[in-house]
Amino acid sequence: MEYQNNIYGQNPDQQNGQNQQNGYGQPNYTYYNNNAYQNYTPYQEPQKEKKKREHKSNGFGKKLMKCAALALVFGLVAGGVMVGVQYAAAPLLQTSNNGGSSGQPVLSNSDKNITSTSVSNTYVAVDVSDIVEEVMPSIVAITNISETEYRSFWGGSQTYESTSCGSGIIISNDGNYLYIVTNNHVINGAKTLTVTFADNATVGAEVKGADPSMDLAVVKVDLNSIQSSTMDAIKIATIGSSDELRVGEASIAIGNALGYGQSVTMGVISALNRTVTVSDSNSGTSYTAELIQTDAAINPGNSGGALLNSKGEVIGINSVKYSDTDVEGIGYAIPIDKAAPIIEELITKEKVDKSDSSYLGIAGVDVTNDVAGTYNMPTGVFVAQVLENSAAEQYGILPGDIIVAFEGKEITTMESLTDTLEYYAAGTTVEITVMRSNNGQYEEKVVEVVLGRKN
Predict the structure, then answer these.
(1) Whole-number pLDDT of residue 1
(2) Of 307, 305, 303, whose CA–CA distance to 315 is shortest?
(3) Rounded to the nearest 5°, which phi and psi values hold at 324?
(4) DSSP 21-37
C-alpha cells in the first residue's frame, strides 16, 4: 500500500514503522511489516519564502495623522476647559443686572457720576538743548576760599584754607553791579569769592546779603571788573512762577556739578511743598522750609544753580540732595516765588555803617529741630543770658525765651539773628517775637525793642 502524499515520509501507524534516511534529497524508505514502500514523496527541507519588501507608504502619513488626532483631542479638551473657566469666572467679571443678567465689566466705569481719566497724546520726547543753550550764559560757578579753624594735637588752635564750589544765577543788573543769587551755604565763611562766567572768565565778588533761615544769599560783582567780551557772553535769567507748577512737569537742573564746570540734568517735578529740614555741618546752621522735590540729579556743586521749567524759566534754586544708600533721585530746590521777596530785600537793603551797628545784648543757643523734638520746644534762638544794661534787658526779653522772628522774618539760628542786625542801625525800634514758657507750655509774645549801639 503506497503513501505518496505523506510529506513526512512515514506511515500513519508510526508506532509500527521505522524511518531510515540517507540524507536530504534521497529516497527514504519506510518499512512496515518488512515491506518497503518506495513510491512515496521523499522528505525535503522546507524552503523559506523570500518576503517581498513592501513600500510602506503610510509611515510618515500615519505619524502625521496621529499628530493631527492628538491636536484635535487637545483642542477639544482645552476648549472645554476654557468654557468651564469662563462660566465659573462670569460672576467675577460681570456685574449682575436685573436679577442676574450680564452687566458692565467690573474694570469699566459703569457709574457715570465718577469721571474716568482721559488719555493724553501730547507727550513727546523733549530735546532741551535749545533751552540749555539759551539759559547757560546766566549760570555761573562760584568758588569760596575760606579759613577753617581746628584744634591741633597739642591743644592749640590753628587754621587752614579750604576751597568749596557752588553755582549761582545772574538775577539782575543795576548799572553798577551784577547781582547773583545762590545758597547761603555756598558763600558761608568766605574769605575770598570768585565767580566764573559762561566764557570761563573769572572775576572777584563779594557778599551783598544773606538769609541763613532760607539758605539764600546774593553776591555782587562790580561791572567795571567785567570785560566787554564777557558782558556780551552773559545773560540775566528769566524768572518763572513756582506757584503754577504741577507735579509731573519737566524740570531741568543746571549747575557746577562737583566743580567740574556747568552740566545739565533733566527730570520731572516729583512733589510740591515738601517740608524739609536741612542742616549744614560746615556752617552749623539748619532751617526748615517747603521745597520743590525733583528727580533731576542735584549733585554737590549744583547748589545755588537753576531749576528750570520746559520754557527755560527759573522756577527754583537748587539747594540740596537727599543722600542715602537706600534713596535715589530725590533733590530739592527753593521755590522762586518764596525766594523772590527775600532776594529783592537782600539786593535793595544796605548794611548799616559800622559806626551805627546795633546791639541786642543776649547770648543765645540754637534750638535745632532735633533739640526741639527731644525737649518739646520751638525752633529758634534760646536766650541763655541777657546782658546787664542791654536793650534786651531794658525792654523785657528774659532768659529762657526763644526768639523765633525779627521784624516778621523767621529766625532759626544765632547766625541769622546776627546777620539781620547788620541791616538795622542803633536806635531803631523793632518787633521781636519770642516764645515764652508758661507752666511748661510755650506762648507767643511780641516785644518792642529799641536797639542799642554796638561798642
Answers:
(1) 43
(2) 307
(3) -165, 150
(4) --STTS--EEEETTEEE
Q: Which H/E stretch holds residue 442?
A: strand 441-450
Cα–Cα distance between 4 and 10 in angstroms, integer? 10
CB under 8 Å to 138, separation ≥6 — which residues? 169, 170, 234, 235, 236, 237, 306
Q: Give CA separation, 61 vs 67, 71, 266, in Å.
A: 10, 15, 64
Place of cell 459703569: 110
Beta carbons within 8 Å of 143's beta carbon, 6+ residues apart: 163, 164, 165, 193, 194, 195, 196, 259
Assign 3-state DSSP to the chain and report helix, strand, coil percentages, each to 5: 20, 40, 40
Distance CA 428, CA 303 (A): 35
Say how far apart CA 188 and CA 212 lie, in whole Å: 9
Q: Residues 251, 303, 319, 416: which is the catalytic one?
A: 303
Of 211, 215, 295, 419, which is the active-site residue? 215
Q: What are phi and psi of 415, to 5 degrees?
A: -65, -45
Residues of the chain falling short of pLDDT 70: 1-112, 115, 117-118, 120-126, 150, 152-153, 155, 279-287, 321-327
- SS3 assignment for 330-373: CEEEEEHHHHHHHHHHHHHCCCCCHHHEEECCEEEEEECHHHHH
CB 282 within 8 A of CB 137: no
pLDDT attached to residue 157? 72
Torsion angle in degrees (nearest 10) through CA of 280, 286, 289, 294: 20
Catalytic residue check, 185? yes
Q: How far apart are CA 331 and CA 322, in angstroms?
A: 6
pLDDT tens, residue by residue, 195-222? 999 999 999 999 999 888 888 999 999 9
Q: Is 358 a catalytic residue?
A: no
How far apart, in Å, are the Cα atoms of 281 and each of 185, 188, 286? 10, 11, 9
How high is the pLDDT of residue 230?
A: 95
Say whether 215 is catalytic: yes
Domains of the chain, earliest start first: 1-44 (no CATH), 130-233 (2.40.10.10), 250-348 (2.40.10.10), 354-453 (2.30.42.10)
β-pair type (314-321, 441-450): unpaired
pLDDT recorded at residue 250: 93
Q: Residue 426 is placed in which grid cell?
A: 542803633
Q: Tell me, yes or no, if the pTM score tops 0.85.
A: no
Contacts of 97 (CB under 8 A, 6+ apart): 103
Ramachandran quadrant class, 112 (left: phi over 0; alpha: psi -120 to 50; beta: rest): alpha
Q: Which of 138, 164, 185, 251 is catalytic?
A: 185
